[in-house]
Every structure is written in C-alpha cells, then in structure tokens.
What does this fold into?
Amino acid sequence: MALKSTICKAELQISDLDRHYYQSHSLTLARHPSETDERMMVRLLAFGLYASEYLVFGKGLSAEDEPDLVELDPTGAIERWIDVGLPDERNVRRACHRSRHMVLITYGGRVADMWWQQNENKLSGLANLTVLNLSADEGAALAALAERTMRLQCTIQDETVWLADDAGNHEFAPRALKRAAN
It folds into this structure.
C-alpha cells in the first residue's frame, strides 16, 4: 500500500518591502512521503520570496518534469519556474528554456556547495537563471518551523527574510550564487 502525502496548512502573511507586495495567503502544502520537513519549508520560503496572485505549488516530487512552484502569466505561459534542491543540470536547462525566469533554491550545506562547484560553469550561460543558497543552519531552522498547521509572518527587506511564528522571529539571508540578467 502506497503512503499518502501529509497535508500541511499555512497562513502566510507577507510584507515584502523590496517588491512592495503585502498580502495574506492561505496555503495547502502536500508533503510527499519522501520529502523532509526542511524541503517542504524551503518550498514555503520560496513562495514567500516570489509570491504573486499567479504563483502556485506544483506537483513536486510526484511529478519529475514539473516545478515545485510555478507562476503563469495571464496567457498561460510560464513566467517563473521555481525548483528547490539539487536537480540535474539538464533539468535546470530544460526549465530555463520553458520559462521566462527560472529560480533554483539550493540547501543542504556542504552537499549544496559541492553541487554548485560541479555545475556553476555549466549553468553560467543561462541568462534567465537565479540560484539562491540556504546555509545548513538556515535549513535546520526552517525545518524546526514545520507543523501541520502554521501561522507565519514573512517580512522581506534588503533580500533578508524574517519568518515569525509564536516561538519568535527567525532570520534567513539566502545567498545569491547566480543572478539572472535583467
């Protein structure tokens, strides 16, 4: 018998002072049985960083050729493709060709650093690619926030993210490994 996804609910109140985006979102996250709390929370952080009325969670781990989050423009074209983790370089290239903007958020400490060293030269020519990295400590702090029901306030200013819950305020500063050309 196959294991079912765990459903998590999040009330995410976003105040993005960099983009002047202020909105509250009621989100449902399906955590695949093989997905860690850390990965699920990185997806939630990615939503906070790029939130818009058109951004939605993709099928995630259950669909190999799908983004973790996707933003479609009003015509149905892929405006932004967002993945988290350490994907194969060919999948990153494919996503860049299928979307206007591709964002990859890596995490995992040394493993993510080694992944970037192996792939930096191969990905450097992709003009629409942004790669952000979370430290091992930031990933662990995100995982600690995971609950079946969450109420979080997300404040973003000068590319720093603060996630506040009942236990306190947690700071995250994703490091840009590569920025898309504007």
In short: The chain has a mean pLDDT of 94. The helical segments are 37-50, 89-98, 110-123, 136-144. Residues 12 and 56 are 14 Å apart (CA to CA). The two ends are 48 Å apart (CA to CA).
